[in-house]
Amino acid sequence: MPASPEEVDILSDLRARCHAEHGVFWMREGELGVFDPEAAQQVNAANFKDLTLPDRLVDLLLRRRSKQVSWKQVRTAWIAQLRRLTDAEGIGGLAARMDALLAERLDRPLDLVWAAQQVCTQALVPVVVAGLSPADRRRLLRDQDYKLRRLLTLEAKRETFREAARSILIQVGGGLVVRRELRGRAKGRRPRQLDLTDPIVDLLPDLGMDRAVDAVTAVLTAIAGPPGSAAACLVYELTRRPDWMARLTSELAAIPPEQLHAAPTRVAPVTHRFVKEVLRMWTPPLLMTRGVRTDIDLERASLKTGQRYFLSAYLIHHDPRHWQDPDVFDPDRWLSGAENGPCSGASYVPFGWSPRACIGASLGTIQLILLCHLLCTRYRVQVDDPEAVRMAMVAVPLPRHLQGMIARMA
Ligand code: HEM
C-alpha cells in the first residue's frame, strides 16, 4: 500500500525522531513532543491536576473571578449519566439509530468515509442532547456536519468571507440550540432527559449559561471527531480483508445486537479484537496539542507554563519499542499471551490519558462493534475500486477513494 505524501512528510519524520530520541524531544522552540507512554501519562497527570473551568466571560469583563468548578466534577457527572443511560436502555436506541441512518443511504453511490462518519456521529447526537424538535435537530446536525467537514478537509484552504460568515452562523445556530435546551429544562418548560446535557442543567447555578453551553458543545465536538474517524477506518479494514469479514460474520450472525452491550469480549471476542486493532492501527487524532498550565519536570525535559506539548497515541501504537511489527494489522495480537501483544497498558491509549481521557470509551467501542454487526449481518458494503483506496494521514487517519455502495443483504 503506497504511503501518502502527507504520511511521508510528517509522520516518517516524527517516527524517526521518536526512535532516535526515545519518544521525548523538542519539535520546535517551546513545543515538546511527548511520545513515550510513561512520559505521556506523567505530563498529562501533572498538567491537568486540579483542572477548573475557565472564568465566565461576564466575570472576565468585570475583572472578577467566577465560582470555581472543577472539570473532574463535570466529567464525573457525565460518566455517571452515561452509565445510567446504558443501564436504562442498553444499546438498543443507538443500534436502531445507526440502522436507520444506514438504511437512508442504501443503493446509491456514496463516499463511504463520509457515510461512516455521519452514521456514527449522528447516532450519538441524542446521547448528548435528546428530545430535540426536528428543526433544532437539523440545526445541530448541520453544525456537526460542518465540524466533520473541517476535520476531513485535506488541504488547509483559506475560507472566503462568505464561507467564513456561513460557518459562524452554523456554529452560532448550534450553540443557540444548546442554550435553549439548557434554559428550557432549567425552567421546567422542557422535560429532563437521560442525556449528557442533563447533568449540566443541575450544574447551571455554579457554571452560568456560557460555561454550561461550552461544556455541552465540548461533548458535541468530541463526538464529531474520533468516533466517525475510527468508523471510517473500520470500514476500510473490513472491506479489504475478506478473511476477517468472514470471521466476524460467522461470529456476529448468531448474536442479537442487544446482547453485545453486556460483555463484548465474552460475547463477540473476535469482533472485539478486530475493533481494538483498528483503534491501535489507525488511532485518531494523530497529534494532540496541550498548553502547559504549570511548570512540569519530566525525566528528559522540563516544561514551563505557557509552552506547549504534543501527544500522539498513534505514534505510541506504531513504536517498535513497544509493539512487535507495529505496522501489521493483526487483531489476533489481542489474544491473551500473543507474542505481539501490548508490552504494557500504557502502550495502548486510543482514548487518551487521565485525567482528560475520553469519557465515552466504552460506548465508542460498543458503537464500533455495533457497526461491525450491521455491516456483516444486515448490510453489504461494496467498494468501487479497491485498488485505488489508500490511507492518508491528515488530522486523522483518512481512507481516500473509498467510494462505493451500501445494500441490504438479501
Ligand atoms: C471510538 C470512539 C472514540 C474515540 C476513539 C475517542 C477518542 C477520544 C480521545 C483521543 C480523546 C482525547 C483524550 C485526551 O485528551 O487525552 C477524547 C476525549 C473525549 N471524548 Fe472521546 N472518543 C470516542 C468516543 C466518544 C464518545 C462516544 C463520547 C461521548 C458520548 C466521547 C466524549 C469525549 C469527551 C467529552 C472528551 C473530552 C474529555 C475531557 O476533555 O476531559 N468520546 N475522546
Describe the structure.
With 410 residues, the protein is an alpha+beta fold. The protein has a single domain (5-111, 226-408), classed as Cytochrome P450 (Cytochrome p450). The protein contains 16 helices and eleven strands. The protein has helices spanning 5-20, 37-47, 57-61, 71-89, 92-103, 112-128, 134-152, 161-186, 198-207, 209-223, 226-240, 242-252, 264-267, 269-281, 313-317, 361-377; strands at 24-28, 31-34, 110-111, 288-291, 296-297, 302-303, 308-311, 379-383, 390-393, 397-400, 403-408. The strands form four sheets. Strands 1-2-7-4 form a four-stranded mixed β-sheet. The longest helix is centred in the middle third of the chain and has 26 residues, at 161-186. It starts with a helix and ends with a strand. 39% of the residues are buried. The protein binds protoporphyrin IX containing FE (HEM). Protoporphyrin IX containing FE binds next to helix 6, helix 10, helix 11 and helix 16.
Task: Give short descriptive properties of this protein.
Cytochrome p450, 16 helices, alpha+beta, 4-stranded mixed β-sheet, 410 residues, disordered N terminus
CATH architecture: Orthogonal Bundle
Q: How would you state the average pLDDT, rounded?
A: 92
Estimated share of beta-strand residues: 5-15%
CATH superfamily: Cytochrome P450
List unreliable stretches of 5+ residues. 1-5
Question: Regarding quaternary structure, how should these chains be classified?
Answer: single chain
The N- to C-terminal Cα distance equals 33 Å
Largest sheet: 4 strands, mixed
Which ligands does the model contain, each kind named once?
protoporphyrin IX containing FE
Question: What is the ordering of alpha helices and beta strands?
Answer: HEEHHHHEHHHHHHHHHEEEEHHEEEE
Q: Provide the helix percentage.
A: 40-55%
**CATH fold type:** Cytochrome p450
